[in-house]
Amino acid sequence: MRGLKMLAAISAVVLWSGLSPAAQARTVGCVANQADEVAVVNTLRSMYAAATMDDMTKLRAVFAPGAYLFDGGTRYESIDALMEVMHGYWAKGVKFVWNVTQPDVHVHCDEAWIAYVNSGSITLPKATEATPTRWLESADLEKQGGVWKIVFFQSTRVPPAEPAKVIEKRRNKRDQVGAKRVRATYRATEATGVDSSQWNNAYSPRPRWAR
Fold first, then answer.
1. Which residue has the higher pLDDT, 48 or 1?
2. Side-chain half-sphere of 144: how many Cα atoms within 13 Å?
C-alpha cells in the first residue's frame, strides 16, 4: 500500500512538471469567485442587448474566434450566420424579446459554462399582442485577455403550451368516441341475450368529474 502511494505521488510530480509554466500558473491561481460568475452572466446579456440593437460590432466582441452555435437544431459556424437568419425574421416584421433568467454558472480557471432560461416573447406580423416564449439555453466560455468570450452556444425553444380550448376539444372528442364504443358494445350484448344492465353498470364510462 505504501508503495502504491509513493508511485502515485511520483506520477503526480511527473505530470505537473510536464505542464508549461503558464499552464502551471493557471492551475495554481485559478479560484472561481462571484465576480467571474457575474461576468459570465453579463456576457450573455450583452450578447442579447447587442442582438436586439443589431449592433454587429458589439455582438462579435462577445464571441471568441472560431465560436459556433446550435439554434433550433441547426449549426451556425458564426454569429454572423445566425444573424442573417434573424434579419430575415425582422424583415418580415417578427419581433423578439430575450431575457436571461435563472442562470446556473460554473467557473473553473479560465473556463466556464452557463445554463439558463431565456424568458421572452415573439410578436408575429399583424399580431395584437406578444406570445410569451421560453428557450432553454447554455454556453461555454473562455477568459481571453481577462475578458469572458463565448466559444459555444446552444438554444432550444420550449414548445408553447396548448390553449385550454384545444385541450377541452380533444377531451370531448375522446369522450364521444368512447361513448360510441360503449353503445355499440351494449347493442351487441342485447342481441346475444346477455343481461346488459349488469354489463352497463360495470363498463359504462365514468363522468369526467369522477376521473
1. 48
2. 12
What CA–CA distance (Å, rounded) separates 153 from 138? Answer: 6
Residue percentage of the chain with pLDDT more than 90:
59
Cell numbers at 56, concatenated: 454587429
pLDDT averaged over every residue in the chain:
81
Neighbouring C-beta atoms of residue 104, cutoff 10 Å: 12
The count of other CB atoms within 10 Å of the CB of residue 26 is 15
CA angle 77, 141, 151 (to 5 degrees): 15
Q: Is the pTM of this model over 0.90?
A: no
The identity of residue 177, as a single letter, is: V
Number of helices followed by number of strands (H, E) in the chain: 7, 7
Q: How far is CA 207 from CA 172, 178, 211, in A?
A: 12, 12, 7
- Could you tell me the residue ranges of all domains in the chain? 1-30, 32-157, 164-210
- Residue 43, SS3 per DSSP: helix
Can you tell me the distance from the alpha carbon of 101 to that of 29, in angstroms, rounded to the nearest whole number? Answer: 30
CATH among 3.40.50.2300, 2.40.50.40, 3.10.180.10, 3.10.450.50 for 32-157: 3.10.450.50
Length of the chain: 211
**Owner of C-alpha cell 461576468:** 39
Q: pLDDT-based confidence at 181, cuts 50/70/90?
A: confident
